[in-house]
Amino acid sequence: MKFTDGLLYLGHAYENSPLHIAAIKGHVAMVQDIVSKMIGDGKDINVINQAGDTPLHCAARAGHLSIVRYLVEQGADVSLKNKAGHTAVQCAQQEGHKEVAFFLASCHTNVGV
């Protein structure tokens, strides 16, 4: 593994991985690159930070529908709950991101709506 490849799996503030940060910031191409590398390396894209948030929780909370769609297409688990007991759909609802919440609710009927 190259040094730069190892950086993909390092934590950051609040133990956010680079994938969490890219999802929060809405960097679609970066999310795609990181997810592709992670899947290629056999890593789980449902990695959690200190709050128990997956990158899907982060993208949903930030209202980034294109990233949410992509993560779900790549196997992100819409039913996972963070340490507060919230699913990604609930995170989207709390922040008023109705389109994101609707999409996530349509992906799985048991996501805690």
Q: Which CATH architecture?
A: Alpha Horseshoe
- Return the domain count: 1
- How big a fraction of the residues is strand? under 5%
CATH superfamily: Ankyrin repeat-containing domain
Put simply, the count of helices is 7
Structural class: mainly alpha
- Mean pLDDT comes to 88
Instruction: Just give the CATH class.
Output: Mainly Alpha
Uncertain residue segments: none
Multimeric organization: single chain
Taken in chain order, the helices and strands follow as HHHHHHH
Name the shape in a single word: globular
Count of individual beta strands: 0
Cα separation of the termini: 41 Å
The biggest sheet amounts to: none
Describe it for me?
The structure is a single chain. The chain has helices at 3-7, 18-25, 28-40, 55-62, 65-73, 88-94, 98-107. The model has no long low-confidence stretch (mean pLDDT 88). The chain is mainly α. Helix content is 53%, strand content 0%. The protein has seven helices and no strands.
Task: Provide a concise account of the structure shown.
With 113 residues, this protein is mainly alpha-helical. The chain has helices at residues 3-7, 18-25, 28-40, 55-62, 65-73, 88-94, 98-107. The longest helix is centred in the first third of the chain and has 13 residues, at 28-40.
Describe this protein with a few key phrases:
0% strand, Serine Threonine Protein Phosphatase 5, Tetratricopeptide repeat, mainly alpha, 113 residues
